[in-house]
Write a structure and sequence with these properties.
Blueprint: E1 8-12, H1 15-18, E2 45-46, H2 64-77, E3 82-86, H3 89-92, H4 103-118, E4 122-128, H5 134-140, H6 147-162, E5 169-173, H7 178-181, H8 185-192, H9 197-200, E6 206-207, H10 215-239, E7 244-246, E8 249-250, E9 253-256, H11 261-283, H12 289-297, H13 307-315, E10 321-324, E11 328-331, E12 339-341, E13 346-348, H14 364-377, E14 383-387, H15 405-423, E15 428-434, E16 454-456, E17 468-470, H16 472-482
Helix pairs in contact: 2-4, 6-10, 10-13, 14-15
Pfam family, one: Glyco_hydro_1
Protein name: 6-phospho-beta-glucosidase
GO biological process, one term: carbohydrate catabolic process
Length: about 500
């Protein structure tokens, strides 16, 4: 068998993209609840004032909150051994700084984890998957305020204690490195809860690409998340020594577009800044040397990185390295190169690769390459691919069937790549596809950008009855899991 017997097979979702029920049972607003939808060519917009004429996709999402039993049964039908999901911070502490947790929110996740246990599914729980309470943004300035570290730790302690016998695998911050990919806009708001006052108080729609955040403030906020993550690792091990606690990196694998040495060096800089910076802090427990040069050359005052914080980072390194992998990009210094899109990024187009309808280049071989590089950089740390998927326009046939061979082809190649990496000696422990059930796209806010093995009747104009149906890929992935990754036909 090319995959270990205990290899974790499953899928991944985020609360803000699937739950809905945005103001039910005591929940208040989180950052994604303020975002409107976009499309392939139009960026998502931010609207800080509720507008009855606007469509906020996360408000109902795909209604997992009311349909979790049906959905988990469907996932179990594919043979899932794990299910990555997030706890929505504002379901537990609606304002982010409440004295007592919201029992209705805690009870909901109790029910979800119990439903998983019924089918032998291990939850893999992300503590913060972009679901920063909106009041943390407006009242505290997001993670740029050091007080928010303590608020996050209170939240982490509450849920880790409550679910210490139901959840073994925890991730601290989803795609913590996203703010490094562009130092403002959607990345700073999603990842750090950081916005400028004039945008918070705006009364009109703002494209997320136009949000501006001070670079100094971004790095201070990111540092506070590093500290919060490290303290959470230490706390979690005190609550239950058997916890496996990981980071989560949006891995942007890049190649030099040409053999031009300047392209090679530019690619090195991108890889270091976008991927290795955050990975090194969380796995090795220290800021890498190249970041001190970056800080010097970009006028960043590093006095916020105290000796006490350095000790915390060293003591709170993660137990596993988890990451998302969707596509690869090319890097070049040549300005005439054709551009293509990615996971909240832009890069140079690779002439050897095909791409999705959203311009994301399809590169299974890049996953094997990435796994080997990571195994070399962090040889003592287990790896897990916790997001990998293919967003596409799916067509429902007259008989209700959905033939998504393109999705099967995508996953086949990436599972083959993981098998090869395992043969290379990579310590890979699990794989969760992104969006095993259709949900709201984080980047565009679309329903039309579908990822799931399970189709949800919900559309960008707000229509649809939320009914579920299986796509062809459902039975295919079921076969893959049953054969432990051997049967990929």
């Amino acid at each position: 068998m090319r995959f270990p017997k205990k290899f974790l097979w499953g899928g991944a979702v985020a609360a803000n993209q699937c739950e809905g029920a945005y103001l039910e049972d005591g929940k208040l607003l989180s950052v994604p609840d303020m975002l409107l939808g976009g499309d392939v060519n139009t960026p998502r917009t931010f609207l800080p004032r509720e507008d009855a004429t606007a469509f906020y996709p996360s408000h109902e999402a795909v209604d997992f909150y009311h349909r979790y039993k049906e959905d988990i049964a469907l996932l179990a039908g594919m043979g899932f051994t794990c299910f990555r999901l997030s706890i929505n911070w504002v379901r537990i502490f609606p304002n982010g700084d409440d004295e007592e947790p919201n029992e209705a929110g805690l009870a909901f996740y109790d029910a979800v984890f119990d439903e998983c246990a019924k089918y032998g599914i291990e939850p893999v729980v992300t503590l913060c998957h972009y679901e920063i309470p909106w009041s943390i943004v407006t009242k505290y300035g997001g993670f740029s305020n050091r007080d928010v570290v303590d608020l996050f730790l209170k939240y982490a302690r509450t849920v880790m204690t409550r679910y210490k016998d139901k959840v073994k695998y925890w991730l601290t911050f989803n795609e913590i490195n996203i703010p490094c990919m562009h130092l403002g806009g959607l990345s700073a708001l999603y990842g750090l809860g950081v916005m400028e006052e004039e945008d918070i108080n705006s009364d009109h729609r703002i494209p997320l690409t136009e949000l501006k955040v001070d670079k100094q403030r971004v790095f201070e906020a990111l540092h506070n998340e590093f500290v919060a993550s490290a303290l959470t690792v230490k706390l979690g091990h005190e609550i239950n020594p058997d916890f496996m606690i990981g980071n989560m990196i949006a891995h942007e694998t890049s190649y030099p577009l040409t053999p031009d040495p300047k392209d090679v060096l530019a690619c090195l800089d991108v890889d270091n800044f976008h991927n290795n910076f955050c990975g090194d802090v969380q796995v090795r427990g220290e800021y890498p040397a190249f970041m001190w040069r970056y800080f010097r050359e970009n006028g960043i005052d590093t006095s916020f990185i105290t000796e006490e914080d350095r000790k915390i980072l060293k003591e709170g390194t993660v137990d596993m390295y988890t990451f998302s992998y969707y596509m690869t990009n090319c890097v070049t210094v040549h300005e005439d190169a054709e551009k293509t899109a990615g996971n909240m990024t832009l890069g140079a187009k690779n002439p050897y690769l095909k791409a999705s309808d959203w311009g994301w280049q399809i590169d299974p071989d890049g996953l094997r390459y990435t796994l080997n590089v990571l195994a070399g950089r962090y040889p003592d740390t287990p790896l897990m691919v916790v997001e990998n998927g293919f967003g596409a326009f799916d067509k429902v046939e007259e008989d209700g069937s959905i033939h998504d061979q393109y999705r099967i082809d995508y996953f086949r190649g990436h599972i083959e790549a993981m098998a090869e990496a395992l043969q290379d000696g990579v310590n890979l422990i699990g794989y969760t596809t992104w969006g095993p059930i259709d949900l709201v796209s984080a980047g565009t806010g679309q329903y039309a950008k579908r990822y799931g093995f399970i189709y949800v009747d919900r559309h960008d104009d707000g229509t649809g009855d939320f009914s579920r149906r299986k796509k062809d890929s459902y039975d295919w992935y079921k076969k893959v899991i049953a054969s432990q990754g051997e049967d990929l036909e």
